[in-house]
Design a protein that fits this description.
The chain is of the alpha+beta class. The protein is built from 6 helices and 11 strands.
Length: 219
């Protein structure tokens, strides 16, 4: 399937979503031959992971102008970036989607999560007492939203060693009324880790049975 959706945010970021429905062979044909990429691809043992790898690169190729470098490299903490390209990048996958966010210069993070009851069993691992008091109504939706938002914050921080329950905090969620889609809004959030202190907004959108979150900051 071609590009599922492109979102242009008010912050000048571009988000692309790809629904992963193709066979492995079909996805391979969408990318031009590249020796280095082929070596990295062959190191992936899982077919699902291979599809995610190919879908992500196919998606980035469609979002970038033809003359821009799209080789993905990773730093010592596993945070991705585009080699010889100043654009900032973040990547995420769910069972059926690959998604990326690009911005000319702002640091960012993105996540997509399916709304699934298994999140209820994880609540104690990432929700603080203060956050638990905010969750009223559709607990399944809100827990998935909070988890996804914290994943986006974790990727923005980019240095690992964060405790989701202590270092990543959600201070409230706000829905945009009459957005014309299933659900859309933002959360007030913070990252507190030693000398690193950041207050920011995490934006969200429900896409079919998934929640997409993203965060951008000039820090």
């Amino acid at each position: 399937m071609p590009l599922f959706q492109t979102i242009h945010t008010p912050q000048n970021a571009t988000i692309g979503l790809w629904r992963i429905e193709e066979s492995l062979g079909d996805l391979q044909q969408r990318l031009p031959p590249n020796t280095l990429q082929q070596i990295r691809f062959q190191e992936i043992s899982s077919v699902r992971r291979q599809k995610e790898w190919l879908a992500t690169r196919t998606l980035i190729r469609q979002l970038l102008p033809d003359n821009e470098q799209m080789e993905i490299i990773y730093d010592a903490y596993g945070k991705p970036s585009l080699d010889q390209n100043s654009r900032q990048l973040s990547i995420t996958h769910s069972s059926h989607f690959a998604a990326v966010i690009l911005h000319p210069h702002q640091n960012l993070g993105i996540d997509i999560e399916p709304i699934h009851p298994r999140i209820l069993r994880m609540k104690h691992k990432f929700i603080s007492e203060k956050e638990a008091a905010q969750i009223e109504g559709d607990e399944l939706f809100l827990l998935t939203l909070y988890w996804s938002a914290k994943e986006s914050l974790y990727k923005l921080y980019g240095k690992k060693e964060l405790r989701f329950k202590e270092n990543l905090q959600i201070h409230g969620h706000f829905k945009i009324e009459d957005a014309g889609i299933e659900a859309e809004g933002y959360l007030e959030a913070s990252i507190c880790k030693g000398d690193f202190q950041l207050q920011t907004k995490v934006y969200y959108q429900q896409i079919e049975g998934n929640i997409l979150t993203y965060v951008l900051t000039k820090t």
